[in-house]
Design brief:
Elements: H1 2-13, H2 24-43, H3 54-119, H4 123-131, H5 136-210, H6 213-260, H7 280-291, E1 304-308, E2 311-314, E3 322-325, E4 328-332, E5 337-339, E6 344-352, E7 355-362, E8 365-375, E9 382-383, E10 388-392, E11 394-395, E12 401-410, E13 413-415
Antiparallel strand pairs: 1-4, 2-3, 4-12, 5-10, 6-7, 6-9, 7-8, 8-10, 8-12, 11-12, 12-13
Length: 423
């Protein structure tokens, strides 16, 4: 009896100092957010420029735009994480209510059993209950009943303690998740302020460029001419590479036709244009490449930000400034290197305006790496995912600005590289 009463006292008066359970959702969200946060912090140093030339200001505007887009993406991630945590909070609160209800029910049952024992507390009463039995078998059953009831009461007390521990842990978990949400709300507010400051800075650059309309148009025309020249060379080399692939496929088809022809019958002639555009090895490589869509590494080592996106678009705030990017421009830190996004073969290495450019074939997909100051591969080399291809050019005249122009093609079709990359 002393034991059962002590259990009740412990249950009602004692609070267990339990640490909160590690919430896997919070840890997962923190991990994903941490990479974005690190990315933004490391690329902020890329924005520093004090030059006022049209070219440097256009580049600065591109960098600012890239940083703003990254910060917006980060703020959106925080908002989504807050929604996820709200859902987790609601789930924990439901679980806590269930646990508290179960605890209250167990306490109520335990209280009833204590009251019953209190009314029948003396040893004499228990003995009278046992020995007043009408038969030996009834005496045995009553002895077992008294013993089992005592055991039942002890187990009830232990269950209450366990349930109390569960309630305490769940409450601690609830507080941890609430704390995580408060921290996220504060972080979002801080990031929003930084975003507003950068947008203000971007407006100032745009306003300054608007005053230099003549020089601005000249610079845009210069950049467009250089881009057209580069794309024409890439298109020519890709057309040549497609023809090489077609010839390889045709040769393979001829060999297969010879090996499959039956004795005494002439070998079937393979029509090079009858659907044979890829060899078996190229088809397998293409399939593997496609299955990794969204998982391919960013083709720049170290911190980076995308400063010019794929497609045609107007530069916000500037009249008659329309860009047409056949790929994306990725700014990295000085010393950054270009790396292959997937296994493949170097299809071409060429120079244009003093800079190197590389084409890597992945079956019928081709990745293009432009604006390199040096290369570490040659035509025909087999490369692997993440293998360094060369060093990206750093412009000494523009604060060591280091930008890789990256394109992705499926044969002659130009693709937006961003959905293919793991960002």
């Amino acid at each position: 009896m002393k034991h059962t009463l002590s259990v009740l006292i412990l249950c009602c008066c004692f609070s267990f100092p339990l640490s909160a359970q590690t919430n896997s959702l919070i840890r997962e969200l923190e991990g994903k957010r941490g990479e974005l946060q690190k990315q933004i912090a490391e690329t902020e140093s890329l924005l520093q420029t004090h030059q006022k030339t049209v070219s440097s200001q256009l580049n600065s505007l591109a960098s600012l735009t890239g940083q703003i887009e990254e910060r917006k993406r980060y703020i959106l991630t925080i908002t989504n994480d807050i929604h996820s945590i709200d859902g987790e909070l609601a789930s924990i609160e439901r679980q806590l209510r269930v646990l508290q209800k179960e605890l209250d029910e167990k306490r109520e049952k335990y209280a009833h059993s204590v009251q019953y024992l209190y009314k029948n507390r003396s040893i004499e009463e228990k003995l009278m209950f046992i020995f007043s039995a009408r038969s030996l078998s009834q005496t045995y059953r009553r002895m077992r009943y008294v013993r089992e009831y005592a055991t039942y009461q002890r187990l009830q007390g232990e269950e209450i303690l366990k349930k109390q521990e569960q309630v305490n842990r769940k409450r601690a978990e609830l507080e941890e998740v609430k704390g995580a949400k408060e921290a996220l709300l504060k972080e979002r507010e801080e990031e929003q302020k930084k975003l507003e400051e950068q947008e203000k800075e971007m407006k100032a650059v745009v306003a300054d460029l608007q005053k230099k309309q003549k020089g601005l148009q000249a610079e845009i025309n210069k950049k467009r001419k250089e881009a057209d020249q580069l794309n024409a060379r890439i298109d020519k080399l890709i057309a040549e590479e497609i023809e090489k692939a077609r010839k390889r496929a045709a040769e393979e088809a001829k060999k297969e036709a010879k090996t499959t022809s039956t004795p005494g019958t002439p070998a079937r002639k393979a029509d090079p244009m009858a659907g044979y555009t890829l060899s078996k090895a190229d088809r397998e490589l293409s399939g593997n490449f496609v299955s990794n869509r969204g998982k391919l590494p960013v083709p720049v080592t170290g911190p980076y930000m995308i400063v010019s996106r794929y497609g045609q678009y107007n530069v916000e705030g500037l009249k008659n400034v329309k860009l047409d990017n056949k790929g994306i421009d990725i700014q990295g830190q000085p010393g950054a290197e270009a790396r292959s996004i997937f296994n493949g073969t170097v299809a071409a290495v060429f120079q244009l305006n003093g800079l190197f450019n590389i084409l890597v074939r992945h079956g019928d997909y081709i990745s293009v790496y432009c604006n390199l100051s040096s290369v570490s591969v040659k035509q025909g080399d087999t490369v692997t995912t993440n293998q360094v291809l060369g060093k990206i050019f750093s412009d000494k005249s523009d604060n060591d600005r280091t930008v890789l122009h990256f394109q992705l093609r499926k044969e002659k079709e130009k693709l937006n590289p961003e959905p293919w990359l793991n960002r």
